[in-house]
Amino acid sequence: MRACIKLGCVALLALMGLEHPHFVRNAAAHSPPVAEDGPSRKDWPVILARVRSNALAYSAKLPDFICKQTTRQYIRSVAPTVGWKITGSFVAELSFYDRKEHYEILTVNREPVPGGTTMENLGGGLSIGEFGSALRGLFEHRTQAEFRLIGPKRINRRKTLCIAFEVSQERSRRFITLNDSTIMTAYRGRCWVNPDTYEVVRLEKKAVGIPRKFPVTQFDMSVDYAPVTISGISFWLPKEAEIWISRRRLGDHISHKATPIRTKSKIRFDGYRRFGTGVKLVTE
Predict the structure, then answer these.
(1) pTM of structure
(2) Is beta strand 3-7 parallel, antiparallel or unpaired with respect to 111-112?
(3) Euclidean distance between CA atoms 224 and 200, whole angstroms
């Protein structure tokens, strides 16, 4: 599955990270313990193999579930000293069944919307099918990502191992589409891994090598995963995510002095529970 970023409509497809691995109870059973100062050079290949195995063991065992997705969108189109201005928000009911995601918009800017409103109807923002394949695409052998151990780090109050990575444009499946123009970019970033279960708890990715003539000049994303209990079983699913996009104004010439339009989306997932007939979310 390729990742595709499409500017022009707000349809945050596959944001659930359903290709993130499910919780593996005995993940560390046959892996070396991680010392406080980090794994040894000998242990590093074994640890990377365990992280890869978890990342490739995606959604097959996820249950049918439902949750609330809240998205807030911001813009900053003047000097960097001026803060972000919120431009809108929406709340969606996201349900997962029949191995597919299903969205229903509940409110836009805190106002109820007619039934059947979809993310494509909202217009004027961003659609991204990135989170669903982010981990699998990174760890697949055919991607030939270069991994480098940075060492123990604390993030979100958790002890983790930090791993840096790079993926070349030739091996990337990360596309950016604006109007009728599409490019494929290399990317790099970091992931933070639970040293006991070898699950990724945070992922950051940054597009690199964007052609200078392309209007989009930046695309970065991050997603934080956490164990979520559904019907008494723990699964690793997204809790928060952020997306940053910069692009030149229409008609701007290529110049280092041109002030880009910067947009940011902050997304939160909560209220996870088992999906069943008649289960609905209630918004305040």
Answers:
(1) 0.77
(2) unpaired
(3) 9
